[in-house]
Structures are given as C-alpha cells and as structure tokens.
Amino acid sequence: MRIVIAEDDALLREGLALLLRAEGLDVVATAGTAEGALDAVAAHEPDVAILDVRMPPTHTDEGVRAAVEARRRRPGLAVLVLSAYVEQSFATELLTGGVGGLGYLLKERVGRVEEFLGALHRVASGGTAIDPEVVAQLFTRSHQDARLERLSPREKDVLALMAEGLGNTAIAGKLFVTDGAVHKHIRSIFAKLDLAPTDQVDRRVAAVLHYLEDARRAR
User: Fold this and answer.
1) Quick one: CA dihedral 96, 99, 102, 108, positive or negative?
2) Are 206 and 195 in contact (CB under 8 A)?
C-alpha cells in the first residue's frame, strides 16, 4: 500500500509516517500543505492519501478541498481525512463526493493503533470509515428528521457500526447477535430510510450520508 501524508504539524506528520512504516506500509511522500499534498499525489500516484482537515494558509478546510480535488484528478484514490474534532459539515462535503474509499476520523483515533490501521485498510480496499464520535453526534442532532424516529434503538446501534465501516459479521460480534439478525436489521434500516436497491449507490453509505446531511442542515 503506497501512502501520501499531508499534515502541517511536523511532529504528527513524521510520527504517523514512522507508525505506518513500522507496520510495513510504504509512505512514499509527506507534505505540510494542501498544495503539497496534491503535488505528491500527482508525482507518486499513491493508493491512499491521508490529509489533515485544517492546513495552511487559512487553516479552515484546505484538507477537505484537497481531498475532493485529489479524487477528481485521480479517480479511485482512497482518502482518509483526519480532524482534531468533529466537523460534520466537512464530513458531509467529503463523503458526498463518492461512496467508497473514503474515511473521516478524529486524530485521537491514531493513538488507538489497531483501530486506526483497521480503518485505513478498510478505506484502502474501497470501504468507508466514519469516526464513531461523528455518528454519535449526528444521532443527537438529527432528531427532527421523521425517518430517524422510525429506527429502533438496536437499528441505530447497527447503523452507527455500519458508519464505522464494519461488515455484518463484525457488527454481530460487537452487538452479540447473529449475522442473520444483523442482516434483518439492515434490511429494516434501508426500508425505513426509503433506500431502494440501485447499482449506482451503496445503500450502507447512503444511509449514513442521509444523517450527515440532515445534521448539517440542522446546524
């Protein structure tokens, strides 16, 4: 796995590079700016780009805009965005640009190495990884949506784990239920959210995006 890292904090940038290299991953370039990240992606054609949300010069949303632009220039590029705290509008902006190979994690998750690496590998393989804290906050802030009220407490638990990128078997293990029970809950979630089968949209991701977008509108 070839990786580009863009983070303006030099200590965190180099620490992350050392961590990934120690795990046998190929960090082909690092950058301290969004522009540098785009240059590195163009030059090295990585499998994954890891970007901080806030980078110079304005320290607002440069990382997210760079992530969206990098995906536009290099379709199929997996992107994992890191943020110091939950910024739901940025998560929505990033994730609505595609339904696979995307992740949004809090930086504190990096310190939980096993969780972080698991999320990185899910994103690299075309899956999604949304920080559980983002999911927790969107549930508390999206209460005005009638479709949220349709979900049972257990279905909300299942959707939260889906958002983290977990598959049915992993969700079953977390909730101490059978795979069949998880499958039944997911079918019910799709029905309650009016998500019909389609070749164009991953319904698992669409379910999460629905709540992210609703949380953004409620701000």
Assistant:
1) positive
2) yes
Q: Kindly list the distances between the CA atom of residue 34 and the CA atoms of 1, 29, 37, 75, 174, in Å, as whole numbers in the listed order.
A: 21, 13, 5, 18, 37
Q: Which residue has the tokens 């949004």?
A: 104
Which of 105, 50, 45 has its CA nearest to residue 76?
45
Amino acid at 146: A
φ/ψ of 100, rounded to 5, equals -155, 155
Q: Which long-range contacts (CB under 8 A, 24 or more apart) does 142-150 make?
A: 142/211, 142/214, 142/215, 142/218, 144/214, 144/218, 145/211, 145/214, 147/192, 147/193, 147/194, 147/210, 148/211, 148/214, 150/192, 150/193
Q: pLDDT value at position 146? A: 64
User: Residue 184 corresponds to which amino acid?
Assistant: K
Give the tens place of pLDDT for each residue, 119-154: 999 999 988 888 877 766 655 555 445 666 788 889
The model's pTM is: 0.72
The residue among 181 and 192 whose pLDDT is bigger is: 181
CA 52 remoteness from chain centre:
13
139 against 203, higher pLDDT: 203
